[in-house]
Structures are given as structure tokens and as C-alpha cells.
Amino acid sequence: MATGFHIVVCGSLVPDPLQTLEPVETPSGPGLKNEMMLPSVLDPWAAHALYEAAHLAGSTSDSKVWLVSLGPKARLQQLMMNIAQKVPFELVALDGPAGGFTDAYEVAAALAGAIEKIDGLDRSRLLLFGGRSSASRDAGVTMQMVGERLGITDQFLAVDKLTVQDDGSLRVLERIEGGMYLASGCEGPPAVCAWSTGELPEPPNNPQVGMQNMRTIMPALQQAQPAAVGAEGLDFQKVEVPQQRRDTKIVKDVPAEEIAREIVEWLRS
């Protein structure tokens, strides 16, 4: 009887946060100036999910990791050149927009459809991983909707730690307010885990892992199916980068209620 996990990670590219992002109007709607020229990185929250998935698969026999990515095919290829050496995975690519002006509902539909078509995926062993948020599509609901479309009702949406118990059940720590954790459990897969930061650092590059991954990455990119993901029906009146603002005030012995009141007044102004 198979005891390992089939872990599917949803994650795509976002512009490198060190770049200056300038919103502009394009013929197809809002976008970023010179978007196709901006260097890209794997979405930070999705990266945590991928590293945690690879660690879990490496410590559990008969496990496998898939990375499902939605983005422009040419830019996905550049991204894979950077992350292929990190951890072993099999790529499932969708060719479509990856900007911040796409609708989470359509993104979830495209991702769920791609996951349903993965050859050899055992839904009874499925752990669906992804980021709790996104540096470009920060709706915070994408993973939940993907899970619902796949019929997965055990969902944990702010995960920092996942532990497999001796009996095969899962113990999950989710972030809540006040720097505390909500400890939950379920009997086992299928389950959805939307990751916060996890516990693992970015793995070092491993050329052997890179060569192993590239055997499947290039065919997956060549066979990437178009994904009609957009924001049809939405009208953006204005898009702009938030202006930086900083006001510093040093005080002593002020009650927390008074500090909160001043912060609220500052935000309103």
C-alpha cells in the first residue's frame, strides 16, 4: 500500500521586489511598465511552500512533488533556470498572464483544471500547497478556491509548520493574532496548506538536482496550455504605486489606547 504523499505546489513568478514598478495603462488593461523586461523571482510565499513540500517528500518515502505555475511561457523558462537547482519537482506549466490585475477566481479555475489533468496523481494522497498570499495576486483566496474546486474541505490557510504523526495524521500550526498559533489536526490527505513563512531557509543550488529537473521542465514548457486568465468586466480607474510616508514621534509612558487612537488619526489624515 502506498504511504507517501503526492504534493502539488501552486506558485508562479512575480517581479523582483528590488525593481521599481510603475503601473501603466496598456491596450489590454492595466499593467507594469516594461513588464516583460523585468527580472522575475518565484513568489516568496509559494517558495516557502515549495521548500516545505520538497522537505516533506524527501523525508517520506514514495512521495512526489509537482509545481503548477501560471505565467508567460518565456518568463517561466527564465524562472525555472533559477529555481530548478533548488529542490526536485515536476513542472506543470500554464501559459497566461501573471500580473497583479488578474482575477483570483479565474486563476483558481485554471490551476484546478491543470491539477485534475496531472497524470498519475493520486487524489487520496494529495497535499495541495501554495502561498497564503501573493506578491502580485494578493487576494488571499486563491488556494482556498482551488481546494474547493478539487473537493478538498480540510484547509489550513496560514501554515507555519506541518508535522506528520506516527499514525499518518497531520498536525498543523497556523498563525493567528498576537504572535500565537492555532494547532489543528486532520486524519491525513487530501488537505490544503497555504503557507506563511514555514521554517526552512532557501536551499543551496545543486547542479545535479537542476539537471534532473530540466529533463521534465523543458518538455512541460513546450507543452504549456494557454490559460485564458484576465480581468474582463473590471474597470480600473487608476493604478499607482503607494507613496511612502513617514512621521516619527518619540513618547514615553503613553497608554496603549492613546497610541492606538493617534495611529488611527494619522491613518485617516
Task: Walk me through the structure.
With about 270 residues, this protein is of the alpha/beta class. It has one domain: Rossmann fold (3-Layer(aba) Sandwich). It is about 30% helix and about 25% strand. The strands form three sheets. Strands 11-10-9-12-8-1-6-7-13 form a nine-stranded mixed sheet, with helices on both faces. A hairpin with a 3-residue loop joins strand 10 and strand 11. Helix 2 packs antiparallel against helix 5 and helix 3 crosses helix 4. The chain is globular and about 60 Å long.
Q: How many strands?
A: 13
Widest sheet, order of strands = 11-10-9-12-8-1-6-7-13
The CATH first-level class comes to Alpha Beta
Number of domains: 1
Contiguous runs where pLDDT drops below 50 for at least 5 residues: none
Helix content: 25-40%
CATH topology call: Rossmann fold
Write out key terms for the chains shown.
single chain; alpha/beta; Rossmann fold; 9-stranded mixed sheet; two-stranded antiparallel sheet; 6 helices
What is the compact description of this entry?
This protein has helices at residues 44-59, 73-83, 104-116, 142-149, 207-222, 256-268, and strands at residues 6-10, 13-15, 23-26, 29-32, 40-42, 64-71, 90-95, 126-131, 155-164, 170-176, 180-186, 191-195, 225-226. The chain has 269 residues and is an alpha/beta fold.
Give the SSE map:
Layout: E1 6-10, E2 13-15, E3 23-26, E4 29-32, E5 40-42, H1 44-59, E6 64-71, H2 73-83, E7 90-95, H3 104-116, E8 126-131, H4 142-149, E9 155-164, E10 170-176, E11 180-186, E12 191-195, H5 207-222, E13 225-226, H6 256-268
